## 1
Amino acid sequence: MSDNASKVDAVMGDMNLGPASMNLLGGVQIRTAIGRAMGVDVPNTSDVTLVGLVIDDSGSIRFSNLTDSVRQGHNLVIDSLRGASSKHSIQAHCSMLNTGQLYPFVPLTGAMMLDTHNYNPQGNTPLNNRVIEACGAIAAKQAEMAASGINSRAVLIVCTDGFDTEERRGGHSAADVNTIVTDLIKTETVIILGIGVGDEADFKAVFQSWGLPKEWIKTVGADPKELRAVFQTASSVAVSASQNAGSFSKAAGGGFNI
């Protein structure tokens, strides 16, 4: 068993997830991915906000000429968090659908910006698999924080331009995503924002099948300017959520309407 999987095993009993969600995280491969995402830093603070990003790097992003806009959108979120008064209590994590983790949960100084070297979309859309990993990483990191007496809240931003392509190959289903998303939402400490780009899929239906409330869903056309504007709003939600418990509740209630 890998050291990363062992890290997850150490906090599994403290995760705020039901039995069905825990079953989804039972394999060594997914526990290893979650352990890698947890990073190594437990901050010396009483309150932490975790901000995760799941970014679509499938070939259709490139074919739709959205590559630069997605790069800019991710970087805008990180820049906005770095400018927040709460920046020292924020940790960020980013994973790509195909190439996997870009960086684990780290202080904002360690978050990598997207550029032409680390973001070049190609491949399929293993959306459900990667979102379950990201949700598991949040649950594990929150459990790790709680064990150290640290309060935590989390915002997960998911951006995609297509349907999941891997369920038919044995990957996870939208119902599986719904299982873990529902458990996270019940904690009242996690916001999950779904950004759907283009017209390849009915993104409202996709995100609602995961259990996301309508306020946490935003769909835009394959327009670079519109996509950047949505990332700007998502960053505003994340910054607001990081301020305090009251601001988090307001951000959760408003979502993209904040």
## 2
Amino acid sequence: MAERFKMRLLTKLKSNLGWYWLRYRTWYRFHVLKLRYLTPGYHDADERLIHAMFAVLCDFMKNEKPDEIVNWESDPGHAHAWSEMNILWNWWVHIYQNREEHNPLFFPGVEAPDMGFSDWDKDKIFNPITNKEERTREMHFVHKSKEAEEHWHKACEETTVWEDKCNKEDEEMMTRLIKIRHYLWT
């Protein structure tokens, strides 16, 4: 198996296409998106999608140097696209990346509750997969005081409103980026 792989690799390298294949799979990996602003770990598809879209824009703005190559004042379409690119890039780098600071759950004075669990013997559920009744534990929040609980619930409600606003803003910015995608070339 390894010998067959070596022979296929050598055959590809001997041709021009082989050199192209090796070069663009190892050194010049233009087909790979680096989502630099995502922390390591699992992220849902909707989050990866917005990061991928704006990674392309950031790569274009930083590495292709469009301000030096393209005459963005040549016609109104180019002027509008250049303006949009700069607005979107600034939003992504300066606003999107720092907006968790505005999440009501992270405001001073809001304390996250501890997690509590019921006793093992208290709760039992019927598991339809095993056709047996099984013991379980119910999880619940443990607040330090009634005031802390009310403050937490208020912050959760405000966070829901804040997240809806952020989602609408994300969709608007993604739509704006889609509308100028044809100008992302040098």
## 3
Amino acid sequence: MIPKDNEIKKPFLEVISDGKSYHMKEVIEKLASYYKLTREEREEEVKSGGKKFDYRVWFARLDLLLACLIEVPQRGFVRITQRGLEVLKENPPIIDYKYLTKFEEYRQYLEKLKQASKERKQNAENLDLETELETLPPEEAIDKYAQKLETALKAELLKGS
């Protein structure tokens, strides 16, 4: 059975715990051996065509990097950081998203994602409003836009108090 990316993070750190730089292909192979994946499991693909296990390892890599548990000394390579070694010494049962939130850098990343999501939603709402305003007579469009501004202003004022 192919492990989830949350299940991969701790073994990922363990296989590079000697402090050397490893190419990601080597990390993927070591983790495949660690999990005793069959040839079929190794070859299983996602809909976009990539290998499922490889993708999960890369996603685990991203989270470890964002939490500063690993670093990228050069393209395609990873190396454990001092923080990563400290996490291994702590020996948590699993390194999942909840665990990673103890690190400020990871929380900042999540906050940026949250903000970007809000902005995308706002942009979509603005586009919907613009499309709607184009179809209304001018007087109605002005009233509609004024309502939108008033609602936004009220929300902003309530948030500030």
## 4
Amino acid sequence: MVEQRDGLERRPPLELIGRLFAQIGDLVQNELSLAQIEMRTKLRALATVGVFGGVAAVLALLGSIALMIAAIAALSLVVSTWAAALIVMAVLFVFAAIFALVAKATLARATPLLPERALKSLGEDLTWAKTRFSSSEGYKTSAETSPERSTL
């Protein structure tokens, strides 16, 4: 005798099919909700990239203005004015490069813009459904497809 689960074996096939389609609808709805949550998370990370990139640009601009004036004036006392300008410019480019690398690393963590976990889960669900309801094998009961189910 096969172990019965919720009396499904005694229900009419049309009712079982109706329940199946209702559960598939719920599954799709849950997968879509997961995809929305995942996309919101990735978009927040991209907003952070924009903020860091913007801050880097503003700091590079302000720093270049202030430092160029002060450093060139100070260095021109020791070296010629053109050499002082080159030294200040090199330092500013180093700082700009550091902020650009931070923005790039954050962008790499936020992309690609795909709900990867939701897509993986949906793929697993589709694979399960294909093996469970393949046309070549016909419909199998849960006891036939699950080796861990005990028979009495």
